[in-house]
Amino acid sequence: QVKKEVEFMSNLKKAREEKKITQREISSKIGISQQAYSLIENGNNQPSLSVAFKIADILEKDIRQLFYTQ
Fold this sequence. Notes:
Layout: H1 2-18, H2 23-30, H3 34-41, H4 49-59, H5 63-67
Helix pairs in contact: 2-3
């Protein structure tokens, strides 16, 4: 379980950094607070399905690449 959470956090942060977008910028585009986004990225909160799709769209990634681990 812990390994999957670390991988999830790594996927999300890596994708955001590849796009050169700050947590503040992405949270503004999604319509949530920076603190709420930080909780998601750090694995302390799970996004709603609509927020997850918005994140994937902004980062131009398949939602499975960001939020699902094998």
